[in-house]
Amino acid sequence: MNRNEDILSTVRMFQEENLDVRTVTLGINITDCVSSDVSKFCQNLIDKVKRVAGSLVPVCERISERYGIPVVNKRLAISPLGAIGGKTDEPGFIQLAHALDHAAESVGVDLLGGFTALVQKGTTPTEARLMESLPQVLSRTDRICASINVATSKAGINMDAILQLGRIIKLAAEKSADMGGFACAKLCVFANMPEDNPFMAGAYLGFGQGEAVVNVGISGPGVVKRAIERLRSTNPDLDLQMLASEIKQTAFRVTRVGELLGREVARGIGAAFGGIDLSLAPTPRVGDSVGEILQAMGIREIGAPGSTAAVALLNDAVKKGGLFASSSVGGMSGAFIPVAEDSALAHAAAKGTLSIEKLEAMTSVCSVGLDMVCIPGDTDADTISALIADEMAIGVINNKTTATRLIPVPGKKPGDWVHWGGLFGASPIMAIRAPGASSGFVQCGGRIPAPVHSFKN
Amino acid sequence: MGIIYGKIRLLEATDLKNTTRYAITVVCEDRVGLVGRFTGAITALGGNIEVLDQNVRLGYFVITLMATFDNGATAEAVHMGLEKIDDAGKPAISVLPRRDTSIPPAGHGAPFVLAMAGIDVPGNFSMVTTCLAKYDINVESLACRTDAQGPLKEDRFTIIGELTVPHNVDVKAVRLELTEILADRKVKVTLMHSDIFDATNRIPMPKHETEMPS
Q1: What is the nearest CA distance from A322 to chain B, expressed in angstroms?
Q2: Is the ipTM of this complex over 0.90?
Q3: Pairwise CA distance, residues A242 & A308, whole Å
């Protein structure tokens, strides 16, 4: 039997602290859909998505109602299209994107990931064509998300691919200029990309993961923030070990809720349960912010000295609590710091306390990277590539996942704001130091070799 | 603490005529050592305790137990034997003969937890339990605490209940009705499957629930 205090504590997490399941993402293997006839390929994809994912949303809703726990997002991830696209040309990839967009809509999910290329050591012609199709794909579809893995600790950093992506990101922004360059918000560039990540825009189903797999993203930061606030208010002599312990316990409970629902959903739709991503994923809603956690921890101005240490403590405690709670932890599993999607971070960026450089430092101790960072629309492609290269280097050298979602917002200058609304939020345009000064390095192209400590065989 | 049913022997029809199983309740002012005295008295009277539930509420000792007496002790004899135990006051004692056939079967349904909290005004208990009864939801245990807030603030109460919800019950509808009937009472009510509480508060994951209410 549970103690009354434990029951009330759990109830409080739901009623007052925004506890939910952030995303249930169904991974679908689409390798059996491939056809050299693009129209046939499209039809196969639509049929398979409808067959495998048709019950995802109703099952999620039914289980959500049974348990009284909201499931915020229901999403799909497919096998990396760049690896199975064969001779598909650019128009063919665009056709496939529209087919998948339609399939995702028909089963009621809001996003579908898997327009993915794994090019860390080299790019195939198919992957190059997929990447070239992205400006059109991302600006002309509603639900398609893309991700490109350009680096691993084992392979090094593919600077040729990063150079190509700098240009593609610029083009995607221009093609969606009427939406503030929104197409770029659906494109993640990764180092050490996880194969079982449920969060968009970087979700895809890796090879070897199975036929249909449910991966779950746990609740957002609100619960952790309130736990810290409660601890501080009741413990005037609070020290950081107590703080870490409280975060661990909270992460344990949050993870358990995710696993309970994830397993039920997987059983309900006849899929395998893949695992839990422990990441704290904020939304623009007040009270659901990683930035506010840092403030609750005592960093009054986000970006001030101490911010990186606070993120490190938070990230580590979340991992420890989550790993104890579940035997199936995967994905990125850390603290997200997406500027546009986190109102506290966005305001710190507007105030000038949070810079791109400080964000980079924080990403060296947590998951993801320069995520949902809006930069001036006139930023040149080489500078975008250099920003990506910096972030990839942090991931490769530290043997961890990092990523970028950079959005050069057309027509906007540092200090201006762009508003997308919904989960994508709003952000100030962040200034870049010495733009245009990195071309001599990034234009060299080639590959940055893998670090010495990656050789473990 | 919940009630555990154990070691109950199924009696033949002839046994029922001379039942020696009693449901016993004792309430008195709390003091150290009362549990030992009462359970010792049951043993001395020839009884075997099958189920026991004891707690202290607002200074009162409350014990409920079920015991069998192989020596054929009468209810009156048990009552008198227990009365002698409390030398400092007069305990309220009830000794009821219990037939096996009247022991309720294990609840059919899923285990849920009810949690209510808010401003303490008369009627909360009855409104909620009446609503639950309408849906054939069995209350397995219910505990209420009231926190006095002083003369300037309204008292606050908390109710935690363990329920068995039949499989055909629409839990969403029950939640909605509970919320509606308490809407003007500054009370928050939550009805959630007990798996959630097990998952968040215990180390082992809950076992798979094969049947749940819709």
Answers
A1: 12
A2: no
A3: 19
Q: Name the residue facing B160 among A7, A252, A259 (closest C-beta).
A: A7
Q: Nearest by CB to B201, from A10, A15, A267: name it.
A: A10
Helix (H, G, I), strand (E, B) or coil at A46: helix
Single out the residue of A42, A172, A29, A49 nearest to residue A103, CA to CA. A49
pLDDT value, residue B104: 55
User: Look-up: residue for tokens 């294990």?
Assistant: B106
CB within 8 Å: A2 and B198: yes
The residue among B177, B93, B94, B97 whose CA lies nearest residue B134 is: B177
Residue of B nearest to A324 (CA): B203
pLDDT, tens digit, 9 for 90 and up, residues A347-379? 999 999 999 999 999 999 987 889 999 999 999
Q: For B209, which residue in chain A has the nearest alpha carbon?
A: A264
How far is the first Cα of chain B from the last one, in angstroms, to the nearest whole number? Answer: 29
Contact A1 B1 (CB under 8 A): yes
Q: How far, in Å, CA of A48 to CA of A59, rounded? A: 18
R_g (Cα) of chain B, nearest Å: 20
pTM of the model: 0.84
Query: How many of the other CB atoms lie within 10 Å of CB of B183?
Result: 9
User: Can you tell me whether residue A38 is helix, strand or coil?
Assistant: helix
* Greatest Cα-to-Cα distance within chain A, rounded to the nearest angstrom: 68
Q: Reduced to 3 DSSP states, what percent helix, strand and coil does chain A have, rounded to the nearest 5?
A: 50, 20, 35
d(CA A78, CA A75): 10
Site from A9, A252, A256 to mutate, B interface, most B CB atoms within 10 angstroms: A256
- The string of DSSP codes covering chain B is ------SPPPPPHHHHHT--EEEEEEEEE--TTHHHHHHHHHHHTTEEEEEEEEEEETTEEEEEEEEEETT---HHHHHHHHHTT-SSS--EEEEEE--GGGSPPPP-SEEEEEEEEEE--TTHHHHHHHHHHHTT-EEEEEEEEEE---TTS--EEEEEEEEEE-TT--HHHHHHHHHHHTGGGTEEEEEEEHHHHHHHHSSSPPPP-S----
Minimal Cα–Cα distance from B153 to chain A, Å?
21
The string of pLDDT tens digits covering residues A269-289 is 999 999 999 988 888 888 889
A421 pLDDT above the threshold of 50: yes
Do A4 and B145 make contact, defined as CB atoms within 8 angstroms? yes
Exposure b/e, B86-113, CB count within 10 A at least 16 = b: beeeebebebeebeeeeeeeebebbbbb
Strands A71-78 and A112-118: parallel
Tell me the residues of A at the B interface, defined by beta carbons under 8 Å apart. Answer: 1-4, 6-8, 10-11, 13-15, 62, 65-69, 252-253, 256-257, 259-260, 263, 267
Least confident segment among A5-19, A70-84, A347-361: A5-19
pLDDT value, residue B205: 74
Q: What is the DSSP letter of A205?
A: -
Residues 92-121 of B with CB under 8 A from A: 113, 115, 117
The SS3 assignment for A237 reads coil
CA pair distance A112, A145, nearest whole angstrom: 6
Taking an 8 Å cut-off on Cβ atoms, the answer to whether A68 and B202 are in contact is no
**What per-residue confidence (pLDDT) applies to A212?**
97
Q: Do A1 and B2 touch (CB under 8 A)?
A: yes
Which residue's structure tokens are 């205090």? A5
